[in-house]
């Protein structure tokens, strides 16, 4: 039978053309993620990349992978440029070079995945489904490394394309976000194998893809209906002050800022716990008795306030600064505190400060000192709470103290740096995935938005969008039992990969011949 599905021979497709297409489809991935979540574009992007890598040398494959990554991060992280215009006079000229440099650096990880895939694929006889499984393994390994090397930056993981799809995202409770990336990339690249297959081989691959999707939908539906979320009987009030970043730290605005938070906090309504965002109070609250007294008067009877504030400690080596969340009672006394441990490079500290003549984007203070790590706070009359400040919430498996499991997670953040861009939506997506992975509700208190209450299934049950001033009054949802991912962490990713490869080499051996050897990927 004459082949219907054909592709031009690779040697007639110039490398520059591959690079241009790779940048374009890499940029397309931003539309697969929130707030767009166009799921159809996931196979278009990743299947195209897999085809572009066919029969390339390791070096050329790395170049194509880097081009894909540059498009992926260049478009996906373009909103970071807005933070440089908060103080445009000092940093505005750095906006485009900084985003380009960050994108070029992060693109090394897709380049690594492509090079690793090419190096192994050129030495093996496997094609079709085997090639898709190999590529998914290489891609997920590189993505995991991106989340851990140096300080790590697991932003916009591929699996987040499923955030808006309730049943599909439930798999994160079992295999985590990296495992979700693994299955997403594998299924997304199957169309490339279909394109190059013949006859019944093509239908076998199609059936495999639909079988995986059906299994994921079934597992997700079962989890959603196993246990309904219930209220713990604790009333929350999230206060979104909506203070522009360029006004936040001006001394002349401190009184107006505090007055706004106090006014919003004292509105009528049943409240047990008040929640203010990251650095809601623009000063050292523990050193300001007058401000504490005014705030204490706003705390409800037998209630608490959890607020983001900077803190400083005098040591023999000088003053150490911390980005913290502190808990206060009705008497204005500090009950407990948490110090951020995942600090933002160049925002909260300058890496290699002795070598790099670069200023921090934030004004005042010195470099922040990292805290000791995830911590559960035990507060009187309140369920146990874990705290993640700002972008700490983007790190899978690094938010909760495994030895002292909380009942909920507070994500205090300040996304005012990024205005009404897609950045806060992407940040919210990470918070939703942490809720599913840990089986815990996540409560976001954001200065300019997006504030939200997210149940343990990843559903936002209340939210205030960017640019809104107001409060969210809602009960705290209940936690679910510890998920497999919460118990095992990323070890479950390694187990998933091993199971898939063992299944491929044994039960699924017949699929390894989905393509003739001469047409292997």
Model description:
- It is built from 17 helices and twelve strands.
- Strand 10 (451-454) and strand 11 form a beta hairpin.
- The chain has helices at 15-28, 41-52, 58-76, 81-84, 88-91, 95-106, 108-121, 129-146, 166-169, 172-196, 199-226, 245-248, 254-265, 289-298, 423-438, 484-488, 491-505; strands at 231-240, 273-275, 304-315, 318-328, 334-339, 376-377, 385-389, 408-413, 442-446, 451-454, 460-464, 470-477.
- The two termini are 21 Å apart.
- Helix 1 packs parallel to helix 3, helix 8 packs across helix 10 and helix 10 (172-196) packs across helix 15 (423-438).
- The longest helix is centred in the middle third of the chain and has 28 residues, at 199-226.
- The strands form two sheets. It has a six-stranded mixed β-sheet with strand order 5-4-3-2-1-12, covered by helices on one side. A six-stranded mixed β-sheet has the order 6-7-8-9-10-11, covered by helices on one side.
- It is globular.
- Mean pLDDT is 88; it is low at 1-11 and 514-521.
- It is an alpha/beta fold.
The low-confidence parts are: 1-11, 514-521
**Mean pLDDT metric:** 88
Taking the sheet with the most strands, its summary is:
6 strands, mixed
Strand content: 5-15%
Q: How large, in whole angstroms, is the Cα Rg?
A: 25 Å
For the largest beta sheet, what order do the strands appear in spatially?
A: 5-4-3-2-1-12
Terminal CA distance: 21 Å
Give the helices and strands as they follow along the chain: HHHHHHHHHHHEHHEHEEEEEEHEEEEHH
Total helical segments? 17
β-strand number: 12
Helix content: 40-55%
Helix-strand category: alpha/beta
Global shape: globular
């Amino acid at each position: 039978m004459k082949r219907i599905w054909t592709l031009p021979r690779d040697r007639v497709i110039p490398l520059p053309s591959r690079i241009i297409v790779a940048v374009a489809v890499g940029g397309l991935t931003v539309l697969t993620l929130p707030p767009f979540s166009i799921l159809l574009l996931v196979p278009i992007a990743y299947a195209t990349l897999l085809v572009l890598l066919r029969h390339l040398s390791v070096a050329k494959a790395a170049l194509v992978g880097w081009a894909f990554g540059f498009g992926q991060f260049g478009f996906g992280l373009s909103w970071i440029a807005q933070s440089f215009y908060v103080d445009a006079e000092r940093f505005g000229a750095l906006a485009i070079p900084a985003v380009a440099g960050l994108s070029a650096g992060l693109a090394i990880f897709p380049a690594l995945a492509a090079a690793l895939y090419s190096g192994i694929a050129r030495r093996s006889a496997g094609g079709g489904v085997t090639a898709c499984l190999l590529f998914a393994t290489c891609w997920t390994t590189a993505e995991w490394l991106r989340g851990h090397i140096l300080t790590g930056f697991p932003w916009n993981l591929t699996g987040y394309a499923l955030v808006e799809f309730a049943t599909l995202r439930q798999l994160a409770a079992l295999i985590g976000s990296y495992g979700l990336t693994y299955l997403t990339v594998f299924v997304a690249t199957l169309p490339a194998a279909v394109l190059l297959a013949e006859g019944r081989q093509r239908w076998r691959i199609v059936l495999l893809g639909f079988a995986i999707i059906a299994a994921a939908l079934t597992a997700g539906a079962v989890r959603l209906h196993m246990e309904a979320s219930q209220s713990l009987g604790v009333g929350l009030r999230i206060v979104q002050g909506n203070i522009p970043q360029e006004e936040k730290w001006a001394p002349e605005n401190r009184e107006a800022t505090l007055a706004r938070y106090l006014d919003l906090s004292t509105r009528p309504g049943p409240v047990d716990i008040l929640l203010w965002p990251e650095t809601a109070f623009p000063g050292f609250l523990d050193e300001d008795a007058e401000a504490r007294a005014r705030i204490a008067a706003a705390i409800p009877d037998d209630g608490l306030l959890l607020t983001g504030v900077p803190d400083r400690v005098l040591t023999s080596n000088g003053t150490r600064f911390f980005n913290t969340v502190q808990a206060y009672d009705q008497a204005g006394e500090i009950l407990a505190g948490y110090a951020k441990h995942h600090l933002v490079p160049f925002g909260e500290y300058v890496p290699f400060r002795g070598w790099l003549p670069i200023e921090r984007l934030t004004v005042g203070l010195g470099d922040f000192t990292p805290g000791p790590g995830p911590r559960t706070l035990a507060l009187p009359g309140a369920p146990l709470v874990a705290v993640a400040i700002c972008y700490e919430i983007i790190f899978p498996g690094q938010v909760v103290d495994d030895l002292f499991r909380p009942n909920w997670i507070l994500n205090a953040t300040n996304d005012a740096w990024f205005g009404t861009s897609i950045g806060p939506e992407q940040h919210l997506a990470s918070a939703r995935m942490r809720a599913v992975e840990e089986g815990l509700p996540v409560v976001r208190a954001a200065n300019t938005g997006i504030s939200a209450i997210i149940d343990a299934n990843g559903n936002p049950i209340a939210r205030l969008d960017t640019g809104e001033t107001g409060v969210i009054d809602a009960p705290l949802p209940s936690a679910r039992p510890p998920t497999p991912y919460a118990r095992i962490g990323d070890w479950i990713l390694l187990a998933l990969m091993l199971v898939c490869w063992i299944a491929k080499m044994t039960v699924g051996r017949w699929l390894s011949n989905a393509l003739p050897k001469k047409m292997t990927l």
